[in-house]
Specification:
eleven-stranded mixed β-sheet
Length: 467
């Protein structure tokens, strides 16, 4: 948020709402002002729910004034990727027309927010059916990366493309997204935010339009790791306690060496290495790691993985008439599934299951793995109109994040600085399945050492001084 009293950690905002120094209406009005100041330039939202949010905020303040407390997210603006069902808000899933009203039914993740009287600010843009890592959309246009130079709009990252932009814009405090191959971590990295990809199966996928049931996972984007931990604790069904930052001294970090640095932009590699050097000076034990079977997993990913076949099957059973109308960049990959036999699909699934078990042995000697989140700078949107250029950039953008989903692990991204284009650089931290609490604790320690994103990066140029 652009107002100083609302640009605080979520825990402090929550305290202000409860002690009367802040109101839900103040938060909602700040979100609306931020949206009005930059939305025509940034295009974060497919559906803006500002009027509903303001009306709900008034009611929430009455509850606060009467001593009612419905949960940690009460009164806080939260954006939702346009795959999530939210009652009385259309679901497009990035397509050219809205889906049937039945898709507006809220699943457990949205219910966790609205049940606490969190304020849904609207539905943020997504790549069509979430099938892409750059954030483009032929039907509605791509959100613009807020760190782009004037007259040179760059990709925001996808597929939760509007989520990172909505946070940088200041129109929400938490963004709900999904992650199949990096779809919360990539936009967070490229827009200077933090993101958590939960272990597949930890959070329910009900009430969310699917891409790949074998790989899809709901996730979160926030301004800081501290905020991620707060929002995760509010939404997670296990209701974990307050996450405390790990002490860095003695923390064992494995720096993945194979593949993830190939073709990396020099300024991204330098920024990432400088961050790791800072952590080493704080007592972190750094170990170079060759991740077993990474090449095998990424070879399958490059062939369409499991997602192409699963999205094709979903569309054939649910929306066959929409296949011909798909974004050409999405349709080309969906049609890859026409050449995929059932035997080959099952072979891929079996190979991924086996290599995931073997790769997990790296955690016997380290506590967490790290890589650059995205090895290249956000491409210019004008460069992505060429199909070949799009394919190359899309695969490289998703390469370092996709294997986490393929191996069934959890991961997050946090910012470490800016690249040569002035675009944020993300550091990816990876942990074994269902170790989100430990991952967040380690990442909070790293954030304390490197600096929180808002202070480390400063305001995004396209929103600085607005609202």
């Amino acid at each position: 948020m652009t107002h100083p009293e609302t640009y605080q950690p979520l825990s402090r905002i929550a305290q202000g709402l409860r002690d009367g120094t802040l109101t839900a209406q103040r938060l909602a009005k700040a979100a609306c002002a931020a949206h009005a100041a930059s939305e025509t330039e940034l295009n974060a939202y497919k559906y803006w729910a500002g009027p509903q949010m303001l009306a709900q905020a008034e009611a929430v303040d009455l509850f606060f004034n009467s001593g009612q407390d419905h949960g940690p997210l009460m009164g806080m603006p939260v954006s939702a990727k346009d795959l999530f069902g939210v009652p009385n808000m259309p679901v497009f899933a990035g397509t050219d027309t809205s889906l049937p009203a039945a898709w507006q039914a809220a699943g457990p993740v949205v219910q966790a927010v609205t049940g606490q009287l969190g304020l849904i600010s609207g539905k943020t843009h997504t790549v069509e059916f979430a099938y892409g890592g750059l954030g483009t959309n032929a039907h509605w246009g791509a959100p613009v990366n807020p760190w782009s130079a004037a007259n040179a709009p760059r990709a925001p990252g996808g597929s939760s493309s509007g989520g990172g932009v909505s946070l940088a814009q200041g129109s929400c405090l938490v963004a709900l997204g999904t992650d199949t191959a990096g779809s919360v971590r990539v936009p967070a990295a490229l827009t200077g935010q933090c993101a958590l990809q939960t272990t597949r199966g930890r959070w329910s996928r009900a009430g969310i339009v699917p891409l790949s049931p074998s790989l899809d996972s709901p996730g979160l984007l926030c301004r800081t790791v501290e905020d991620l931990a707060y929002a995760f604790g509010a939404i997670d069904p296990a209701r974990p306690g307050v996450v405390q930052a790990y002490a860095l001294s003695g923390l064992r970090i494995g720096v993945v060496q194979n593949i993830v640095w190939d073709g990396a932009d020099a300024s991204i590699a330098e920024t990432t290495q400088a961050a790791l050097a800072t952590l080493a000076r704080k007592g972190v034990v750094m170990t170079d790691i060759t991740l077993p079977h990474l090449d095998s997993a990424l070879e399958i990913f490059g062939q369409g993985g499991l997602a192409a076949a699963e999205l094709r099957a979903f569309m054939e059973m649910t929306f066959p008439e929409r296949i011909a109308r798909l974004d050409p960049m999405v349709r080309a990959r969906v049609e890859m599934a026409d050449q995929l036999s059932a035997v080959e699909y099952l072979r891929r699934a079996a190979v991924l299951s086996g290599v995931a078990r073997a790769a997990a042995t790296v955690f016997d000697t380290v506590d967490v793995l790290v890589t650059p989140t995205v090895p290249i700078s956000a491409p210019l949107l004008t460069d992505l109109t060429d199909p070949d250029a799009y394919r190359r950039a899309n695969m490289l953008t998703l390469r370092n994040t996709a294997f986490v989903n393929l191996f069934g692990w959890c991961a997050l991204s946090l910012p470490t600085g800016l690249d040569h284009n002035g675009i944020p650089v993300g550091l990816q931290m990876i942990a074994p399945p269902r170790q989100e609490e430990a991952l967040l604790a380690m990442a909070m320690g790293v954030e304390n050492a490197l600096g929180r994103g808002p202070e480390l990066l400063g305001p995004a140029p396209r929103v600085a001084g607005k609202a």
